[in-house]
Structures are given as structure tokens and as C-alpha cells.
Write a structure and sequence with these properties.
- The protein is α/β, with parallel strands linked by helices and 182 residues long.
- It contains seven helices and seven strands; from the N terminus they run E-E-H-E-H-E-H-E-H-E-H-E-H-H.
- The strands form two sheets. It has a five-stranded parallel β-sheet with strand order 5-4-3-6-7, sandwiched between helices. A two-stranded antiparallel sheet has the order 1-2.
- Helix 2 runs parallel beside helix 6.
- The chain starts with a strand and ends with a helix.
- About 3% of the residues have low confidence.
Length: 182
């Protein structure tokens, strides 16, 4: 089982949806499944987050996450996603033998990530950051993703969980609590 907090970000346009200590959820949902991926997918769906099953994924991660993104990229490519990534992330993905298209960070000039998000070019975003400028760019990415209803995560653990959920999508298994604990 996976418990997911529900936050009302959609009601506050322009607010950075990164979680801070003063953020308060408006509720919780629980997803139950035979695997973590199935449970995570159901928890997201219960929180009104529809994970894509295909499309275009944007990957832009901090240096410390370059190794882990290779596996996420390979899994997304195997699922049929077309991959887009910023400079260093793209180099890392290519070094793993996975195709990706290089895109500009916000600070690198137009057209950049936020322009592409506003053009609805992405279905999924995995974006981890470090450093002041990257954090500022990341805030604009999160706001644009929220406004355009694009699934995104700001952690590698979140990216890995999303991949597991997409891999286990299918006909949902519905069971009562009595069946689970009977």
C-alpha cells in the first residue's frame, strides 16, 4: 500500500509547488496493489494525477543523480517514451546507449524547457536540482508543468516510482479491505 498526500496546487496559479514545511495537504489517498508500482500508480490516480503511458519525457538531473537517471531513461525508452534531456543529463543517457534529444536549460536561451512545456511538448518531467540558478529555473519548470497538467517529480526516487507505476498499469485490481486482511 502507498499513501499519498493531496495538495491543492491547482487552486493557486503561479505558486511554486515545491513542498516546504508550511505546506498543508488537503487530504490523503491510498493505493493498494500486489506490487509497489501498482500501489503507487493507484495512489497517484486517487490524488487526481494521471501518469502517462507514453509520449515525451524531459529528464534534467543534478550531477549526483546522473548514474540513476540512466536506468530511468532506459526503462522509459523501453516503455516507448521519446526522451529529451538537458546537456549533462543527455550526455549521461547517451553514454548508456539510450537515445535522447538535447534541449536548452532556461539559462541557456530560447527555445528552452519552459517554452517547450508551454507548447505541451512533454508528458512527463523528472527534474532534480542543486545550486541557486538551477533552483530558480526549476521553480519555473514546476509552475509551467502544473499549469499544463504535466506529471513531474523533483526526486530520483519519484522518477523510479513513476516508472514502476507505468510498467504496472493495466486493468486495475479492486479488492475490499476484508479480502486483503481476511
Amino acid at each position: 500500500a502507498v499513501k499519498e498526500a493531496v495538495f491543492p496546487f491547482a487552486r493557486f496559479p503561479g505558486v511554486d509547488p515545491v513542498l516546504s514545511p508550511e505546506m498543508k495537504s488537503t487530504g490523503e489517498v491510498m493505493g493498494v496493489g500486489k506490487t509497489f508500482g501498482e500501489a503507487y500508480g493507484k495512489a497517484n490516480e486517487g490524488g487526481s494525477i494521471k501518469l502517462p503511458t507514453s509520449g515525451k519525457a524531459l529528464l534534467s538531473v543534478r550531477e549526483a543523480d546522473k548514474q540513476r537517471i540512466k536506468l530511468v531513461a532506459r526503462d522509459l525508452a523501453d516503455l516507448g517514451f521519446e526522451l529529451f534531456a538537458t546537456g549533462g543529463t543527455c550526455d549521461s543517457i547517451l553514454s548508456a546507449g539510450v537515445d535522447c534529444v538535447r534541449v536548452n536549460k532556461v539559462m541557456e536561451g530560447r527555445p528552452h524547457i519552459v517554452d517547450m512545456i508551454k507548447n505541451d511538448d512533454f508528458d512527463l518531467i523528472v527534474n532534480t536540482t542543486e545550486g541557486k540558478q538551477a533552483m530558480l529555473d526549476s521553480a519555473s519548470i514546476r509552475r509551467a508543468a502544473l499549469q499544463h497538467k504535466i506529471s513531474y517529480t523533483t526526486t530520483m526516487s519519484g522518477g523510479e516510482a513513476i516508472v514502476m507505476a507505468i510498467q504496472h498499469q493495466g486493468e486495475p485490481m479492486v479488492v475490499s479491505l476484508q479480502e486483503l486482511h481476511g
